[in-house]
Each structure stands twice: as C-alpha cells, then as structure tokens.
Amino acid sequence: MLVIMKDHASAGDVQHVVDLLEEAGAEAHLSRGEVKTIIGVIGDREVIYSLEFEGLSGVEQVIRVLKPFKLVGRDFQPEDTVVDLGKTAVGGGAFAVIAGPCSIESEAQMFACARAVKASGATMLRGGAFKPRSSPYAFQGMGVEGLRLLRAAGDEVGLPVVTEVLDVRDAVVVAEYADVLQVGARNMQNFMMLEELGTMQRPVLLKRGLSATIEELLSAAEYILKGGNRDVILCERGIRTFETYTRNTLDLSAVAALKSLTHLPVVVDPSHATGRRDLIGPMSRAAVAAGSDGLMIEVHPDPEHARCDGPQSLTPEDFDLLMDDLGPRIVLEGKTVEVSG
Ligand code: PEP
Ligand code: MN
To answer: Does 152 lie in the same domain as 33?
Structure first.
C-alpha cells in the first residue's frame, strides 16, 4: 500500500501516519521529495486492509497494491480448480450444462424438465425451491417439498442437483437435498451466509451480484474458501446497466477476466443475463467462446404458464437444438460435456 501525502504536508502529519502504521504492526518506508512525501507500507495483508487512512490530516491518496483476495487467485493456485460432483465435474476442461426450471412448481413439471434436459445432454439439474422475488406477493417457491421433488427428479435421471440457499437458516436443510448450493445474486454479499457455506462440505455456485464488481465477486468467493470450502463455481449472470431492452447486461469480459484472475470455474447464465429467450442461444455461443466452464439455462416444459421467468426459459425442444449446436463449439474450446451413468 502507498500513502501519498498532500504537497507540503507537515512533518507532524507524516509522523502521525507512520505512528499509526507502526502501532498496527506494519512497516513504513518514507520517500521524501521536495514537495511530496510518499509512504510505502509493507506488512501482513489483513493488517494493511484493515487500515483506513483516507481522510487523515495531510493524506492525499491511498493506493492499495495488494489484491483483497488471496486463496481464489491464480498466484495462490495456478492450476484450475475442478469441482468434482461424482457423476460429473466443473472446471479444468469439464464443461457444465446446468439446466432446469427457474422454480420447482409440481412433480409433473420437475420430472418432465429433468427427463428432457438429461436427454439433451445437460450435466446438472437446477430448480429453485426458495425463490428470491422482488415482490412479496409473487410465488415464493415450494420450499422443502420442492427440494424433495428436485432430489427425486435428479436421482431418477442421474444428474446432480443445484438449488438456491436463500437464507442462512435454510443452509442445512438445502444441503440435505442438494449437491450444489447456489448463492443468488441478491445474496452475493451476505457475508454471514458465505462464512457459513465456507464451513460446509458442499460445492457452492456463487452468482455475481446485480451491481458487484469483479473484485467484489472474488472477495465474496474468498469468504467461502477462507472457511475451508474450496469448491466454488462462479456465475456471471448479468449486471445492472442503463440498458432496459435486456433484463441485465451480460458482462462477458468478466468471464475472460475472471479466468485469468482466478482458478475457480466460471459459468454463464444467459437466462437471467438477458431475460429473453431469443438471446439465450447467441449468448451461450459467446460464453463458450469467451472461455466459460459452463452454462446455466432455464428450461420449462410450458414456459407460457411458468410461475417464474417463463420469458427467459427455453422449451425442451429449443434446448435440445441449442445443445446440438453448442456441442462442437465446446469441443473446439478443448472442453468436454460429460456425465456418467
Ligand atoms: C436463479 O438462478 O434462480 C436466480 C434467482 O438467479 P439470480 O440470483 O442470478 O437472479
Ligand atoms: Mn429465474
């Protein structure tokens, strides 16, 4: 970290910063120019990040050179993390296709979805049992009964299942049914929940917050790894911009950037990113080309009657066509889509 003092900052102001640094156990290295003094700070990452020198008398700017994350970084672990789900994997060349309805609505709907997506080559089954809805009057999901249906449908077709943990109080029950615990965009910075999931033995699918930066997404993942859980899959699901034609704006540059910054697998959700069925195909192809390790796509047997997110859900027929189209593109990127059994 560098603390840049204002032009002609007083000796007292400089000394005050040095004293605070030494008190905190960090080393201060002064370089004094004719008008400016710059203080280089060396020490423990956690100590340095706890220091907030902005606003101190005589301080002009504080520049943090260290990244606020460590365990998720490629510096810490150069090789890709492969999240092993038994029947399938994500990362390190294993491409995941996570498909299923936005929300679990009934036994018939969930099983129809599961059979269809499995037949088309999906590697994981999704479905929301606890739904984060903007309106408290909208369908909130089937809860534990939904978890049971998702698990049963996944078991029947032989696919691992992923579903959202909406509240830290539900983490244990969701983990009883799900192979992967999803943290939704609205919970990306629910630090208590991230800490809790860090102590659990279940892979986590961490979705990027609606207005979270790449660094904030990685810092959120760091919370989970810091707790001991190394199995985190990141998900780019679009961010809020001024654009209203699409539900969100798919930030594909984040995928490429994340792939170089972190060893964690990165998947793309073109359903929530665009909100539009017609854009799922083009954005899926783009995600594959950008280097993503997977896709999460909403599929519903009858999207017009879906209780949630019908307009951004593919029919099983369209999903099947898309899978045929994506297959060779995924191979071209040197990846495989596989599920055993
Ligand atoms: C979802 O995947 O069901 C979901 C609610 O997505 P997000 O958290 O990205 O809005
Ligand atoms: Mn949805």
So the answer is: no
Residues by chain with Cβ below 5 Å of ion ligand 2: 102, 309
Number of domains present in the structure of the chain:
2
What's the domain range around 194? 83-332
Biggest distance spanned by C-alpha atoms of the chain = 77
Atom of ligand 1 nearest to the CA of 235: 9
Q: Is residue 166 a part of any domain in this protein? A: yes
Q: Is 237 in the pocket of ligand 1 (CB under 6 A)?
A: yes
pLDDT band (50, 70, 90) for residue 43: confident
CATH assignment of the domain containing 157:
3.20.20.70
pTM above 0.90, yes or no: yes
* Ligand 2 center–CA 143 separation, angstroms: 15
In this structure, what CATH number is given to the domain that contains residue 35? 3.30.70.1140
Nearest CA to ligand 1 atom 6: 184
pLDDT digits 0-9 by tens, 181-211: 999 999 999 999 999 999 999 999 999 999 9
Burial of 79-91, coded b for 16+ CB within 10 Å and e otherwise, reads ebbbbebebbbbb
